[in-house]
Amino acid sequence: MINVRHYIAWRAAQELQEGDIVNLGIGIPVLVADYIPADRKLFLQSENGILGVGPTPPADQVDMDLINASKLPVSELPGASFFDSAMAFAMMRGGHVDKTVIGGLQVSQTGDIANWAIPGKDVLGVGGAMDLIVGARTVIVATTHLDPQGQPKVVKECTYPLTAKGEVDILVTEYAVFTFTNGQMILREAVDELTLEQLKEITPAEYRLAPDFKFVSRPVSLEQRGA
């Protein structure tokens, strides 16, 4: 059975296009680097100062001086460049990142996102999330549909501290893909393991079906880039 987190990363990778400059957030998004289609050339940026991040290297080729913002080992593609965090954030804030793939604690039906703090728990800091969400041209949230306690993450209104209001463009979970247009949430696709009624039971947010809505089957295996 396919690992849910890897499936979400694989599906999010399908939203990336030739030539995109893309920043990957921590958690599920870092896995996206391993699932970019082999025939698609794009540029992965990391806020710790890399442009040209490649897939996860084999264990015998890991260099712990070459890591992403999540402190996980990465490879570098031909032509990769390195710079300080100030330059990395200037790229993010200056609108030079085409897409960002980030995690989420909650996403509302109007495209609000909360992804940096859970009330009552220690706060590690917002990191570069606010900069990325406001600076990137397209914001893709890659997250599980439910939290570890089985509570919905796709909600009418966020109850956690907001990272940004109305900035989410695409939401990818293990069950569905939603898009947001003019403050409206649209269901673009859903896995055929659930009926629309079952999906609605775990999705309090209000949404409508896209004209080209479709059911999809999850692949039985995922081919990892560089594997």
TrEMBL record:
<dbReference type="InterPro" id="IPR004164">
    <property type="entry name" value="CoA_transf_AS"/>
</dbReference>
<dbReference type="GO" id="GO:0008410">
    <property type="term" value="F:CoA-transferase activity"/>
</dbReference>
<keyword id="KW-0808">Transferase</keyword>
<comment type="similarity">
    <text>Belongs to the 3-oxoacid CoA-transferase subunit B family.</text>
</comment>
<dbReference type="Pfam" id="PF01144">
    <property type="entry name" value="CoA_trans"/>
</dbReference>
<dbReference type="InterPro" id="IPR004165">
    <property type="entry name" value="CoA_trans_fam_I"/>
</dbReference>
<dbReference type="InterPro" id="IPR012791">
    <property type="entry name" value="3-oxoacid_CoA-transf_B"/>
</dbReference>
<dbReference type="InterPro" id="IPR037171">
    <property type="entry name" value="NagB/RpiA_transferase-like"/>
</dbReference>
<protein>
    <recommendedName>
        <fullName>3-oxoacid CoA-transferase subunit B</fullName>
    </recommendedName>
</protein>
